[in-house]
Amino acid sequence: MNAFEITGGIKLKGEITPQGAKNEALQILSAVLLTEKKITISNIPDIKDVNKLIELLGDLGVIIERINKDTYTFEAKNIDLNFFESDTFKSKGGGLRGSIMIVGPLLARFGKAAIPKPGGDKIGRRRLDTHFIGFEKLGAKFVYDSKKAFFNVDATNLQGAYILLDEASVTGTANIVMAAVLAKGTTTIYNAACEPYLQQLCKMLNRMGAKISGIGSNLLTIEGVKVLGGTEHRMLPDMIEIGSFIGMAAMTESEITIKNVCYDELGVIPEVFKKLGIKLERRGDDIYVPSQKHYEIETFIDGSILTIADAPWPGFTPDLLSIVLVVATQAKGNVLIHQKMFESRLFFVDKLIDMGAQIILCDPHRATVNGIDKKYKLRGISMTSPDIRAGVSLLIAALSAEGKSTIYNIEQIERGYQDIDTRLRALGAQIKRVNADAPSH
């Protein structure tokens, strides 16, 4: 098993460029199945979850050519629908939560699909009902085989429909949009997710010949077309990486410039970090974070404790709450972190408490952080990464801590962050990859 060994307490300095957006990639790559024409996609992150999906597309029969490190072409001319019945598909599809995203395009183009019950992070229940209820509204019929943990879907006659989503699920909205673009008639999706990544997908589909209006709002209208063509697409930088680097700079008192961030697509993210007292400047399309010894958490206007909670876009993304929590441990002041969407994403705080952070875990969804204003440093410990975002939060804590930390199960971190150790070393971080068995406790 690989682990990271980190010697903390070192100020970093320099420039870092965020990778392409993981959450956008899983949607955009699945959309190549909607056409037999060539699609060129650039700024694809070289991370495990994305590479697994590209491999799965290849197994399905998509012709894939890698142009350079982050650019690929895809041609889904001859798709092998029998691949769904193979053991290979069951193991690969079941091990990748993003594999659910291929269902919508396959239903739209071929009228059928199958998918093993997907895996992914252990961060609580993540229902797929939104996806399947949407497909059902469009006329699909699906059967869950509980013995094989497998979904089979038949959609030989998809018809446009009015769909009111019970939750503004990003992947659910994307999947239904991809199913609806080739359905007969008009589909209306209300309470649709409107994240920048979903906007990117809709704009790409429109360039391919789809007719989607209302992009950027929670009311999408899709007029079905008979066929889609090819296009070129460049993915946005990963906003979760950008937020992670802002937090890392503050925790380590580092002067860092985050390059090419597509600032206008970041929503409230910069403002939330400013509420923690972190100084940052927009310089063109870069974010400059100066070295700062202290940062103080704001209060609400009436003086009550600041609450930071996740919400559907344009609210604050749940993927950055773990980062906000760890950054708050070294701030001056208090903050209540409210993780509404996933009930066990805060369970990594015990590691931060072991490092010396002052955190009260109120319940599975809420934690109160008493910032220690860097009066003393966190101390390095050995810990295990439970999921992608908690793993990076622990990595940031380790970079700021006194002494050596070891993080096990870094495969979780590398599912979402490309070459993270190499890029951090370029800023001066003392981080190295080692082979080590995780502690048994």
Strand content: 15-25%
CATH class of the largest domain: Alpha Beta
Low-confidence stretches: 119-126
Which structural class is indicated by helix and strand composition? alpha+beta
Characterize the biggest β-sheet: 4 strands, mixed
Within the CATH hierarchy, at the fold level, what is the topology of the largest domain?
UDP-n-acetylglucosamine1-carboxyvinyl-transferase, Chain
Q: How far apart lie the N and C ends?
A: 16 Å
CATH superfamily of the largest domain: Enolpyruvate transferase domain
CATH architecture classification name of the largest domain: Alpha-beta prism
3D shape = globular
Mean pLDDT: 91
Strand order of the largest sheet: 21-22-1-23
Query: How large is the count of helical segments?
Result: 14
> What is the number of E strands?
23
Question: How many domains?
Answer: 2
- How helix-rich are the residues, as a percent range? 25-40%
Radius of gyration: 22 Å
